[in-house]
Design a protein that fits this description.
Hect, E3 ligase catalytic domain fold; 2 domains; four-stranded mixed beta sheet; two-stranded parallel sheet; 11% strand; globular
């Protein structure tokens, strides 16, 4: 990708954080930018842990940051997409500019895509203007949605009069009566979206870090799959197994037989994860209970929890077996930090 060439490798943009409160600390350290900037190569270290970042730690950090940004700064239905939460404090702190920089750095330096925006938000990031075909269903602010529901459910003019102050505050200047319900709800919805424009402009400013805003404007359709839900492939066992590239011992050897049992164990383990996820979707997961999922396994291996189109074709997971270890079948995998592909080491 041409954007990768825009990374300034003359120095490193170092982020040092603890795993506790990683997201909030990561935001603070990112905004500091004293010695370098996100235009440089991102290097991440977790305080108190030994490890040199050759790509894996950076991906892990960016993955956690994108997840945190979605939960902290955005709201809405995950299937239809999300919009920024309206927050004057976050806007004044330039928090959304920081979010844009993290999105840009993630896309350029191997992190996950921010695949959770509504189409109209994505359109604004691409072109800097509102989409003419706005849908009221894309309003995500709960207060705005509640007001729209109250207007729609109002059976008489007296109820609408009680809501007149809130309606007028949303910019509606026409008559307030039952016959104008559609016009009133449209005005309220438009108000809920328009007030997000300064926030989206700040987010767009962050995307200028590598000239990503220009790329989005020129290749809107192609890049949509990275920002809008419904385009990325879900992680499944077949994808994970096809990506495996085991480094087996010679045929007929005792070691190869052991290595085959290890691969069979890994396959059984991944299939159990798939079955557990399917059962959870049918029955509903118990509240407060969490399980390891296939996406967690992929994230642990690669730093990515979703399958982007280019990632789907290029991923190679090399399994190397530790032949010098005397411990038999510990079933513990170790993730290496190779920059070209991920290395698994199984302790024999």
């Amino acid at each position: 990708m041409s954007l990768e060439k825009k990374v300034d490798t003359s120095q490193s943009f170092n982020i040092n954080v603890t795993r506790e409160d990683l997201f909030e600390r990561g935001l603070k350290q990112w905004a500091r930018q004293k010695q370098a900037s996100p235009k440089n190569l991102l290097r991440v270290s977790f305080i108190g842990e030994n490890g040199i970042d050759q790509g894996a730690l950076r991906k892990e950090f960016l993955t956690e940051m994108v997840c945190g940004i979605e939960a902290r700064f955005f709201e809405g239905d995950g299937e239809r997409g999300k919009t920024p939460k309206y927050s004057i404090c976050d806007y004044q702190d330039n928090s959304f500019k920081t979010c844009g920089e993290i999105f840009a750095t993630g896309l350029v330096q191997g992190g996950p895509p921010p695949n959770f925006l509504t189409k109209w938000c994505y359109h604004f990031l691409c072109h800097g203007e509102m989409d003419k075909d706005l849908g009221v269903l894309e309003v995500t602010d709960q207060d705005i949605k509640n007001l729209m529901t109250e207007v729609e459910n109002a059976e008489g003019g007296e109820k609408l009069i009680d809501l007149s102050d809130a309606i007028v505050a949303c910019g509606y200047t026409g008559p307030i009566n039952v016959d104008q319900k559609k016009a009133i709800t449209d005005a309220i919805a438009l108000h809920g979206l328009v007030r997000l424009i300064p926030i989206l402009n700040q987010l767009r400013e962050g995307l200028r870090l590598y000239g990503l805003d220009e790329v989005l404007a020129q290749h809107t359709q192609m890049c949509q799959q990275l920002f809008v839900p419904g385009h990325l492939q879900e992680v499944n066992v077949d994808f994970l197994l096809l990506a495996l590239s085991p480094d087996f011992s010679e045929e007929g050897s005792v070691r190869r037989q052991r290595e085959m049992r290890i691969i069979n164990f890994l396959q059984d383990f991944l299939q159990k994860l798939e079955d557990r996820e399917a059962d959870s979707q049918e029955e509903g997961s118990p509240e407060g209970q969490s399980h390891v999922a296939q996406s967690h396994f992929l994230q642990w291996v690669t730093g990515q929890w979703v399958v982007v189109p280019t990632f789907h074709k290029s991923l190679q997971v090399c399994l190397q077996f530790r032949k010098e270890c005397q411990v038999d079948c510990q079933k513990i995998f170790y993730k290496g930090t190779g920059s070209e592909y991920v290395t698994f080491t199984y302790e024999l």
